[in-house]
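Changelog note: in this version the structure field was regenerated for every chain. One regenerated record is shown below for reference.
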Amino acid sequence: MNAQDIAEKASGVFVLPDAVTRLKECMDDNAASIDDIAEIIAFDPGLTSQMLKVANSALYRFPNKIETISRALQVIGTRSAYDLALAYGITHAFSDINAKVIDLDKFWEQSVSCGLLAKYFAENKRIREPEKLFVCGLLHNIGELVIASEVPQEAKRCLAFNARVSPAELQKAILGFTYAELSSALVQCWGIPESIYRPVSLIHDVDSGVDDSDTLILQLSYVLALDNVNPEVYPSYHNLSPELHDRLALKREDLEDALDITNLQCISVMSLFNPNSFILY
């Protein structure tokens, strides 16, 4: 199997909502105004509802209730709003995945946990538009959903990781590529910016010498989320190597704070991005 070929096929099967595609075109148009963006969102009731839920969620913790899209765009920012709309659109595209193949609740728990941790560290490092890192974390493993849909038996085999064999190592052995590589290729096929797909493509390449903050944050967030969501397989910090946080000038206490805060956020934020929850909330 080839990740690029699978991604190209999947990009025609898992289609982004029209509103998200139009938002990207609008964001690429330097002449577009905040009113143009608000109008696109307002024409999609599902996206409108999602944006208001997110703006009023634990992801932001604004003191006053935000009741209109125009107000949400003012306080969140248009680029961050696009990133969150993108996250909604992609998770919505995978709403029909068979829950019997993989544990979808655990899948989304790890994805959301990784996203929240990445956003937390981005804010800690004062990186602009930390929502971009949230989206990277949220989408880093959507390749698993593609494999669960296209070759479910292989997806089941990839669940057998353990303390000696990491998920990425097992995926590479069975598929010839990792879920992250497939995720990155699919996101690229959708025409989504390099600032999203590049850190995802490098999430497991901790020895590659890459030193940009986005990638380093995503690599750290991934291993913390992996251990955090799979305590039956990994003790705390099992997959953490010191250089992952040393390169970001973070101490172990900083990681503990990040996990404490994001664990409190995780359940409520999961209800926003887990497609299984869209009907309930």
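Spot check on this record: DSSP finds 16 helices and no strands in the chain. The chain has a mean pLDDT of 91.
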